[in-house]
Amino acid sequence: NSAAALASSVGLALGQFLSEVVQDDMTIGVGWGRTMTASLGSFRPPRRKNCKVVSLLGGIVAVHQTNPIDYTWRFAGQLGAECYMFLAPLLVDSVKTKRALIEQCGLNTIYDLAENLDLAVVSCGDIGPHSTSLSEGFISKAELDRLIAAGCVCDTMFNFLDEEGRSVDHKLNERVMSVDLDTLRQAKHIVLSSGGAHRAVAIRATIRRVGCNTLITDETAAKELLRLNEPS
């Protein structure tokens, strides 16, 4: 389908970019998604010394197309880097469970490393009929409708944002196992990789929230981003 083809072409560009940009001694935070998985096809870095790869969000119990653990592991393997897995479900039942997992199950290592990222590589999804979070079954149709009613246009590392990049529907956002977007914002270099005109609003919202040093996208999204930027 076209979504898969798009993820594939943008992902290949991402892999080429990362092959050149990763240096020795870097701590690299990675999200996951179809675009990121596709980047492995063209990620051919020289062997780097003393790199750490840190997963920025938890995973899913039933994996369809995109296996986050597999992605992080393979990315780190191609670099010969130390790998830090975010071994937790993507969504937990309460803030209390989230705190317990972080403090008592060793996940605080991930959060500590995320405070000093040299490179953060993330993608974003739109909220609507194309939404990966719906098609992969992470959230229900009812939850999706509630998010849309709250003004949500974007899913960045399973944090749900409005057009301005503000978090919406705090109940869901509070239960997600991911590094905080305000922590992500402090990375020295942020790479955002996502394509498709239908994702332009989501891309813009993500940039407003976490910033972006390098955007890897396709022509349709780029044109739509420029159109959105024109004074109305």
Can you describe what's shown?
The chain contains 11 helices and 9 strands. With 232 residues, the chain is an alpha/beta fold. It has a single domain, classed as Rossmann fold (3-Layer(aba) Sandwich). It has a 6-stranded parallel β-sheet, sandwiched between helices. A 3-stranded antiparallel β-sheet has the order 5-6-7. Helix 2 links the parallel strand 1 and strand 2. Helix 10 crosses helix 11. The relative contact order is 0.16. The mean pLDDT is 91.
Q: How is this fold's topology laid out?
A:
Elements: H1 2-21, E1 27-30, H2 34-39, E2 52-55, H3 68-79, E3 82-84, H4 95-104, H5 108-114, E4 119-122, E5 125-126, H6 132-135, H7 141-149, E6 152-156, E7 159-162, H8 170-174, H9 181-184, E8 190-193, H10 200-210, E9 214-216, H11 219-229
Parallel strand pairs: 1-2, 1-4, 2-3, 4-8, 8-9
Antiparallel strand pairs: 5-6, 6-7
Helix pairs in contact: 10-11
CATH class: Alpha Beta
Tally of helical runs: 11
- Order of strands side by side in the largest beta sheet? 3-2-1-4-8-9
Low-confidence stretches: none
What value does the Rg take, in angstroms?
17 Å
Oligomer: single chain
Query: Helical proportion?
Result: 40-55%
